[in-house]
Design brief:
This protein is mainly β. It contains 3 helices and 18 strands. The strands form 3 sheets. Strands 1, 2, 3, 10, 12, 13, 14, 16, 17 and 18 form a 10-stranded mixed beta sheet that branches. It is rod-shaped and about 110 Å long. The chain starts with a helix and ends in an 8-residue tail after the last strand.
């Protein structure tokens, strides 16, 4: 990944050679605070048990710089990727100490100008896109915009904006939009099926077949998107694994949905997702083992010049398996 720190200082110096108020960057219109998606992640309706580990984007509670030696706060468990397509620059940091936060719309860095212009400051001090009214100006902030890449120096400068840009922390980041897309997917845990199934009794030492009744919401892949002014994020969810807790102290981890059992398979073991019990379920409540399952979904999202991955889990409705023991009967 390209380190822009030294390059950013040179670009800032180059930009200083022209009056900042002549910056040609056109500030996009960002959503009012009431229009943005909520930043927190909650389980979808009817899916009470979920855990989301978000990577990418790096949404912020406050549009401030990180403390020295620290990193911008945000979702863990993954890595955000920011890109500048101009001049083959490629991947860049989503935050730079000298230039601020990366805005995928326009692919420039934004940093709050400190100090802000006084109320009676001259028009040019308010930068590009500032409204004429003092009252309206006071509702937004002036940012110093830096656009890395040869020939892009004049695209930056002082720019007024009503709200922080995407990626800055005040509006929905690409990662937050990805989380909104996940909510819309309404992902589920496995729809557990087994052989022997309900009302049937298996035997100690005989193969048990396990599978997930596949639908888009129990196995995927499933794709959805979420948008805010100037940015759309598309996310695709696929199942990485399903971990079955078999009720006897053992577990089975399956990376496939499993194979549905058919009578023609006889007593053969499952080719991809099965289990063997070594004791009966006679001592269990209702004389059956309770099988639980946790599905791990991996969601890859792309949008606004960024991409990342989010890992989320869903719990299944438990199933029960009755296991008995064959008894040898001696004939007289």
């Amino acid at each position: 990944m390209l380190n822009l720190r030294g390059r950013g200082v040179l670009l800032a110096a180059a930009a200083a050679a022209v009056p900042l108020h002549l910056g040609l960057f056109a500030a996009p219109a960002f959503a009012e605070d009431g229009d943005k998606p909520s930043g927190g992640v909650t389980c979808p309706e009817l899916v009470p048990d979920c855990d989301i580990n978000a990577g990418g984007g790096g949404g912020q509670d406050k549009p401030d710089k990180p403390k020295p030696g620290g990193k911008p706060s945000g979702g863990g468990g993954g890595s955000a990727k920011c890109y500048i397509e101009w001049d083959d620059i490629g991947e860049v940091p989503c935050y730079d100490e000298d230039m601020g936060w990366f805005n995928p719309v326009g692919q420039c860095y934004w940093e709050i100008l400190e100090p802000q212009p006084a109320k009676d400051a001259a028009d040019w001090e308010w930068g590009t896109a500032a409204p004429d009214s003092d009252a309206e100006r006071a509702k937004g902030k002036v940012y110093n915009v830096t656009c890395p890449g040869a020939g892009r120096e004049l695209m930056g400068g002082s720019t007024w904006s009503l709200n922080p840009p995407p990626g800055f922390g005040g509006g929905p980041t690409a990662e937050e939009l990805a989380q909104e897309a996940i909510k819309k997917m309404r992902l589920l845990g496995a729809d557990i099926r087994t052989a022997p199934g309900a009302g049937k009794t298996g035997l100690v030492g005989m193969p048990v077949w396990i599978w997930n009744n596949k639908t888009l919401r129990t196995w995927g892949p499933i794709t959805d998107s979420a948008s805010a002014p100037g940015i759309t994020v598309t996310a695709t969810a696929t199942v990485k694994k399903i971990e079955y807790v078999m009720g006897d102290g053992g577990t089975e981890v399956c990376t496939t949905a499993g194979t549905p059992y058919e009578k023609r398979f006889g007593g053969r073991p499952s080719p991809d997702c099965g289990y063997l019990y070594t004791k009966t379920s006679a001592s269990q409540p209702d004389n059956a083992f309770t099988v639980k399952a946790t599905t791990t979904w991996v969601v890859h999202w792309v949008g606004g010049g960024q991409e990342g991955d989010i890992t989320t889990t869903r719990e299944a409705e438990p199933a029960q398996i009755t296991i008995g023991e064959a008894q040898a009967v001696a004939k007289p």
